[in-house]
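Limitations
The structure tokens in this dataset are predictions for the assembled complex, not deposited experimental models. Users should treat interface geometry with appropriate caution, especially where small molecules or nucleic acid strands are included. An illustrative entry is reproduced here so readers can see what is and is not provided.
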Amino acid sequence: MTPARPIPTAPKVVALSGGVGGARFLDGLARVVPPASLTAIVNTGDDFVHLGLAVAPDLDTVMYTLAGLGDAARGWGLAGETWSAMDMVRRYGGPDWFSLGDRDLATHLVRSAALAEGETLTAVTSRLCRALGIACRVLPMCDAPRRTMIEAVEGGALPFQQWFVARRAEPAVRAVRFEGATAPSAAVVAAIDACDVVLVGPSNPYVSIDPIVTLDGVRAALARRPVIAVSPIVGGHAIKGPLATMIPELTGEPASAAAIARHYGDLLAGLVVERGDEAHPGLGALPVHATSTIMASPDDRTRLAREALAFVRAVAR
Amino acid sequence: MTPARPIPTAPKVVALSGGVGGARFLDGLARVVPPASLTAIVNTGDDFVHLGLAVAPDLDTVMYTLAGLGDAARGWGLAGETWSAMDMVRRYGGPDWFSLGDRDLATHLVRSAALAEGETLTAVTSRLCRALGIACRVLPMCDAPRRTMIEAVEGGALPFQQWFVARRAEPAVRAVRFEGATAPSAAVVAAIDACDVVLVGPSNPYVSIDPIVTLDGVRAALARRPVIAVSPIVGGHAIKGPLATMIPELTGEPASAAAIARHYGDLLAGLVVERGDEAHPGLGALPVHATSTIMASPDDRTRLAREALAFVRAVAR
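Predicted assembly:
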């Protein structure tokens, strides 16, 4: 839904993000939008406790990517990471299905210690980001645990990381649901209310964006702003992750930009799609901007961010 | 106090230990005594929670030393250790006064996760030791926290690691006391009751051995066995740690093997001292074995262990 009020020349931007794709899109936005005008709201539905540590995969990917510390090839974790601690955990017969790098461990240690002392996830995330030199705001979607559960066709419900990493996203998905907190953080509500436009990164709608959008009042708040999304589908494929198989499993239709548009429904004022994907009849009358959405280089990220900002301005008029 | 019963040819040995010196003595014993006949009872008074992790410095030093993984030059931690996690903790502005190596972190992570799930410190220690190929038994002195507190002349009471590491053992010591649990573990009581001889390693009596000996019933149980100690004093100096200054601060007398003997009192059936230290008049009628007590090489450790075993056999007759 598009609001009546005009979009200022330098709009305040809220971007919703999951992990890798969303983080790269945020990195582009951070190169284009002044830091004080950019707030990232990041999925925490994948968060889990591992070896007693509070691990927040999407927050970490966003932080490391925005700090320029991410491992570009692997797509997650820190560049130049070492794995001595995990080698030793393995030697002890400890759980090694989720790899924690040595430097990455510091993030979880500092975060877990802070949470144990009563600091909110929002506050400790802000502190970690500042320490890494990140100038824009990075907000976890909520402070209390909200867990994405994958209902598999066989074997019942699994927490997301168990399904995604330990089971290699192999069990077919019947449904996705969320357990735990239903309230967004106060900072999330305030950021949406204060923004001029909302950009949804090329993240998995079911497991990365829905956890945010289904928080109490968030969809209604977003509906008062012009929202565009970047489609995470490229020619029927997902760049990364299990999305391309989840769409047919969950909807019965093939993976396509149209499936993304249909999922977000009337939330969207427009959709940025990969060039060639705009021809799908299922997109109907939805305004579409077709471009190259693959963000291999920093230049790609900057260009896509600029185009997305121009597009939301155009569709919001 | 020496018991009436004869010591068998292959005695069951209990050894009390703190960190570095005690660990090296245990390593010598482990090369001489069959694994099933050797039980180490290790001080946990230095244990503390750091970055949310249960750190047990003396247990770790004992484990790493017995596993042949210890850093011989540094005296603590693991050989070939890396420090990536701590570098990142520092970058986050986290506490860096206590260095946790990357591989060492795995020990604390696995231990902390086990304790959080309700496993006892005794059980998880046994599991970690098995994983590292340690064949003898290593028992923490107790399962519940018992904290060694240093009463400084100025500035009040400090937990041991705060005093020793963060304050570099500089504040003069007025008294040492223990807070928390007073009961030894059932395994500790059973091990002492089942043993034939007790050897006290060359550890600091005040902060490494007293935490064990002052547990409910332990001194009485030890008194029913022949007990000898290895003096941690060499010609008026301590090989490692703050002992040489603690003795005059706590007793008003100079550091000497005699001060060690006086501290342990009637617990001892004999004392192994550095050659030259046996002449101290304060040793009185206590049986003394003078030898080289510095354990630079594995051969030194083996020799000292053999001599200590022969000595306890001799004084127990």
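Some entries come with short summary sentences. For this one: The domain at 13-316 of chain B is CATH 3.40.50.10680 (Rossmann fold).
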